[in-house]
Amino acid sequence: MYYSMKTNRDKYTVCKNCVMDTSDSLLKFDENGICDYCQNFNKNIKFQLEDLSKSRHELEQIVKKIKSRKNNKYDCLIGISGGVDSCFLAHFVKKELNLNPLVVHVDTGWNSIESVNNIEKIIDGLNLDLETIVIPWNEMRDLQLAFFKAQHPNLDIPQDHAIFSSLYQYAVKHKIGYILNGGNFSTECIREPLEWAYHASDVRHIKDIHKKYGKIKLNAFPLCDIFTYKIYFRFFKNLKVLQPLNYVDYNKKNAMEQLKNLYGWMKYEHKHYESRFTKFYEGYWLLKKFGYDKRKAHFSSLILTNQMTREEAMEKLDYYPIADDEINNEFNFISQKLDISESKLKLIMQEKNKSFKDYKSSYFIIQFFVKLLRILKLESRLIR
Questions:
Q1: pLDDT in tens, 235-271
Q2: Which CATH superfamily is domain 6-375 in?
Q3: CA dist., res. 39 & res. 78, Å (int)
């Protein structure tokens, strides 16, 4: 049984085209009640998804460049989580693009059964090499607990940062010139607002929260600030980051079916729930404590790319994403894993909410670069 959320509908004004609403405090509407995310999609993203012949040609040119630059055993590096996007990317890169990638998994300590199964099935089925980077658990745990104590909305910053910084640093160290990731407009054309999910790349922000609430030094935790990976790695180490799924007709449901039939891939409930921590954080903590439901952005992306109807999305949003009989089990699992009592974790949950703005950050600098990327047409999504 799932707890009802129908009473929450009256709190917010909802876009008449997607399901984004004023739980995003910066959301704006036109005279027809259409939100600015939808307006931005129609103006800056939709045409990129429709002109597949041009996109396919561009992808072919990219593949040629990747192959011509090969300087070791592998053409490129792919990060894999066990989720649909990264698993399908591995399949696509190997089978469709005929590239030889090194697959890297960053183990943050929160893999679900589905994640472990899916990684194993994809690696074995495609005969790929896998490198696993294990984040020191004592430091991972300490940083995550610091974010709990900070009353921060985005508890996934430590895990997200560990993953992307590990991949970038590994590629540079081993002189692999290209990182291919599963990011795509098809399922991610609407990005969660920053008040829900602040930048995981902001090292100044991470260090300030850890300084205030952490207990041990982060000696081995992989930190990589945005200037290092956006400027130094890109222009001085010639590292390129690409999203091949943006160049094809990528459909999430079809991708899952294909992975299931070809490799025995296991489905999970919602986007990012291949991580046990993310499932708890997005499916319960963030929603219950802050009122932020990331499914609204995820579903809206699928609505705009014709993979879900607005009615289907609204129906799903009427209920919590985690069943009520699961919540206690998840709460117990998280508290045991983090070595904190359930009662203490519940007390933290009841304390006053804060935002990323309550801590030091590089917000204005990062947003300047985001705006610059939009001007240069290297970023099409709204990020605010």
A1: 999 999 999 999 999 999 999 999 999 999 999 877 7
A2: HUPs (3.40.50.620)
A3: 32
